[in-house]
Amino acid sequence: MTEDRPRAAVQTHELMLALVRGPALAVVTLPLSILLFTLCLVSIALLPIGVGVITTPPTQLALRWYAGQRRRLVREWGGLEVPEPYRPWPRERHSGIVGHFELCILLLKDPATWRDMAWLPADMTAGFVTALLPPMLPINHQITKAMLEPTREMLLAQRVEQLYETRHDAVDASAAELRRIERDLHDGAQARLVAMGMSLGTIEALVERDPARAKQMIAQARENSAEALTELRDLVRGIHPPVLAERGLPDALRALALRMPVPVEEDIELPGRFEEPVETAVYFAVSELLTNAAKHAEAGKVWLDVLYVAPASGGSVIRVTVTDDGKGGASLDAGSGLSGVQRRLAQFDGVLALNSPTGGPTMITLEVPV
User: pTM of the entire structure?
Assistant: First the structure.
């Protein structure tokens, strides 16, 4: 009996909420759905004469905003997650009239646009009735979820698009890395080795005529060889750090934290080794984040937390959190170092989240599936 009372109280509370939310939802959404459906139909009908090219983007964007608000209500009131089905925008878009025309085409080619429009008549009829009758409000949430969430085909299309983008980024990153290695070899070790060869030729000519001068040049050649060896080691470390190959990701991250010019308080809990590409991606991502904190954030201290997370739902990830007490204001805009990290992690289905208000602190969290 004691357990039935709290359950009955919860059910009564939910019914009271439905008595308020349902009619309010019906009254507000019915005119909005009718208005948006009418505007969208008229805009599309006017496409052949060119007027629809101007009116379709704003009406469709308004519809997407409205659908987004309904997804939020379904999540908050019904406890149902409704992911957005829309295709991502291209990285580079034109401005002006050309950009407006391009936006119109992108919207009309997206299958989610037509699903949103098909949802409006259902929301005007079945959605209105189920919202108006409070006990049927959960059915309203189910209808909204079924018609606004991405279909299996949409999910597959999004996945293909994501794989295309990440493959393109991987090719670009590999080409840029090869150019960097070639440049470093040409400007560094290669130049020193060429100078050593010339010095040895001169030494061979001087060894009998001027032994003292030959000894000086031999000492200089020895210094050049040591510097060339150091540069080659630095180059190898930039490709794949030896400590990462020999001792694994935890010790490599600890060594990286010790080399930073600002104090880094680290807490690393990883169960052994992972696949080499994953370890390399995480290592260089952390290296970029720590370097940014020291160079750009003007931080006095940095906290590095690395955990292995295995959710009960399946799968496992390496979760890295880098927090600094710097000035904040970091951004994921295209061209920034963080956007580059984000693109490299996407090759492994990794994600990066940023929280950096002006004035700090900055917290960056990344997750890479393993």
Answer: 0.54
